[in-house]
Amino acid sequence: MIRIKVVNEPSELVPMLRSVDTAVKRDVLKEVTLEWKTADEIEKKYGPEGRDAILFFEKIKLVESRWTASGENYPEKSFHTYYTSFQINAQWPVYEISDVLAAAMMSEEEYVNIEKQILEKVGSAGRFSGDVAEELGLTSTMLKSLVRRSVKMDFRGHRIEIRCDE
After folding, report:
1. Torsion of CA 78, 83, 84, 89, to 10 degrees
2. Do domains 4-88 and 94-162 have the same CATH topology?
């Protein structure tokens, strides 16, 4: 089945760009494009960074998952890429795309710092994104881009909530 990911919102570019920002992520993405792989198989081959890559891909819905029987007779989640191609409709104001690219290209140190601030503002109950953006002095596009880069939080409508992995 052919599935096409259509990118209409500028902040959706951030996870796409971040999904190939390291050699490990690129290699893991190629591997799960070719065949179904479990997180343990990926971690065995690529280390903890490989497992983190799979979790990030799952968060941004770049991979699909299914349960498969493992050698120890218990089910294990395996992953495969969901999309076969991407379509990017790119016509956005410069101020929006500059926020998107800044969030995508931000150094890991700088990002960890701002992510921590966002997580503190959001708290365990979640929070309306407009309030968080206002308190941190960020544009809504920048905040969306930063949240989409994170594996720790996600949007539920207009709210930012802490991600709970199953």
Report:
1. -160
2. yes
Please state the pTM of the whole predicted model.
0.78
Per-residue pLDDT of the chain (166 residues; tens, 9 = 90+): 788 888 888 888 898 889 999 999 999 999 999 999 999 999 999 999 999 999 999 988 899 999 987 767 788 899 999 988 888 877 888 988 999 999 999 999 999 999 999 999 999 999 999 999 999 999 999 999 999 999 899 999 999 999 875 4
Domain ranges of the chain: 4-88, 94-162
Q: The domain 4-88: what is its CATH number?
A: 1.10.10.10
Whether CATH 3.30.1740 fits 94-162? no
Structure tokens at 160: 């930012």
